[in-house]
Predict the structure.
Amino acid sequence: MRTNPAAYGDDPFVDKKCPGCGQAWPDFIVEGTGEQAVRCAHCGAVIDTFRFDEGYTIVFDEQRRVGLTVTAEVAERLAERAHEVMALPEASE
Ligand SMILES: [Zn+2]
Protein backbone atom coordinates (compact mmCIF):
# COMPACT_ATOMS: atom_id res chain seq x y z
CA MET A 1 0.00 0.00 0.00
CA ARG A 2 1.14 3.50 -0.81
CA THR A 3 -0.34 6.84 0.18
CA ASN A 4 -1.16 9.80 -2.02
CA PRO A 5 0.24 12.90 -0.20
CA ALA A 6 -2.04 15.16 -2.24
CA ALA A 7 -5.10 13.53 -0.63
CA TYR A 8 -4.36 14.18 3.05
CA GLY A 9 -2.73 16.64 5.45
CA ASP A 10 -0.62 15.13 8.23
CA ASP A 11 -2.12 11.64 8.54
CA PRO A 12 -3.77 9.66 5.71
CA PHE A 13 -6.11 7.86 8.13
CA VAL A 14 -7.56 10.89 9.94
CA ASP A 15 -6.72 13.99 7.89
CA LYS A 16 -8.23 13.34 4.45
CA LYS A 17 -8.72 16.15 1.98
CA CYS A 18 -9.64 16.46 -1.68
CA PRO A 19 -6.55 17.04 -3.85
CA GLY A 20 -8.74 19.06 -6.23
CA CYS A 21 -10.69 21.55 -4.09
CA GLY A 22 -9.09 21.02 -0.67
CA GLN A 23 -12.38 20.03 1.03
CA ALA A 24 -11.71 18.09 4.26
CA TRP A 25 -13.42 14.67 4.32
CA PRO A 26 -15.32 15.47 1.12
CA ASP A 27 -18.61 13.82 0.22
CA PHE A 28 -17.87 11.35 -2.53
CA ILE A 29 -19.36 9.60 -5.53
CA VAL A 30 -18.31 6.26 -7.03
CA GLU A 31 -17.89 6.09 -10.79
CA GLY A 32 -17.06 2.60 -12.08
CA THR A 33 -14.43 0.48 -10.36
CA GLY A 34 -10.73 0.64 -9.51
CA GLU A 35 -8.43 3.20 -7.96
CA GLN A 36 -9.90 6.09 -9.97
CA ALA A 37 -13.51 5.30 -9.01
CA VAL A 38 -13.94 7.31 -5.81
CA ARG A 39 -14.32 10.99 -6.61
CA CYS A 40 -15.05 14.20 -4.74
CA ALA A 41 -18.75 15.08 -4.97
CA HIS A 42 -17.85 18.79 -5.04
CA CYS A 43 -15.23 18.95 -7.82
CA GLY A 44 -14.96 15.43 -9.30
CA ALA A 45 -11.27 14.92 -8.45
CA VAL A 46 -10.09 11.40 -7.62
CA ILE A 47 -9.73 11.19 -3.82
CA ASP A 48 -7.45 8.16 -3.60
CA THR A 49 -5.76 8.55 -0.20
CA PHE A 50 -4.40 5.01 -0.49
CA ARG A 51 -3.03 3.23 -3.53
CA PHE A 52 -2.22 -0.44 -3.89
CA ASP A 53 0.61 -2.17 -5.70
CA GLU A 54 -1.10 -5.54 -5.41
CA GLY A 55 -4.58 -6.69 -4.51
CA TYR A 56 -6.88 -9.64 -4.80
CA THR A 57 -10.54 -10.55 -4.51
CA ILE A 58 -11.74 -13.61 -2.63
CA VAL A 59 -15.13 -15.29 -2.78
CA PHE A 60 -16.43 -17.49 0.05
CA ASP A 61 -18.94 -20.30 0.31
CA GLU A 62 -22.24 -19.71 2.16
CA GLN A 63 -20.77 -20.86 5.51
CA ARG A 64 -17.62 -18.77 4.92
CA ARG A 65 -15.40 -21.77 5.50
CA VAL A 66 -13.74 -21.92 2.08
CA GLY A 67 -12.36 -18.96 0.14
CA LEU A 68 -11.09 -18.83 -3.43
CA THR A 69 -9.08 -16.07 -5.08
CA VAL A 70 -10.66 -15.05 -8.38
CA THR A 71 -9.19 -13.69 -11.62
CA ALA A 72 -9.13 -9.98 -12.42
CA GLU A 73 -11.94 -10.54 -14.94
CA VAL A 74 -14.20 -12.13 -12.31
CA ALA A 75 -13.25 -9.45 -9.75
CA GLU A 76 -14.30 -6.72 -12.21
CA ARG A 77 -17.66 -8.41 -12.81
CA LEU A 78 -18.21 -8.70 -9.04
CA ALA A 79 -17.24 -5.05 -8.52
CA GLU A 80 -19.94 -3.95 -10.96
CA ARG A 81 -22.50 -5.74 -8.72
CA ALA A 82 -20.82 -4.98 -5.39
CA HIS A 83 -23.96 -3.99 -3.47
CA GLU A 84 -25.62 -7.20 -4.59
CA VAL A 85 -22.80 -9.70 -3.96
CA MET A 86 -20.78 -8.29 -1.04
CA ALA A 87 -21.63 -9.36 2.50
CA LEU A 88 -21.59 -5.86 3.97
CA PRO A 89 -23.72 -4.83 6.95
CA GLU A 90 -26.86 -2.93 5.84
CA ALA A 91 -25.61 0.54 6.78
CA SER A 92 -22.20 0.10 5.11
CA GLU A 93 -21.28 1.79 1.83
ZN1 LIG B 1 -12.93 18.27 -4.43
User: Anything to note?
Assistant: The first helix runs from residue 72 to 80. Helices lie at 72-80, 82-85. The CA atoms of residues 42 and 53 lie 28 Å apart. Residues 1-54 form one domain.
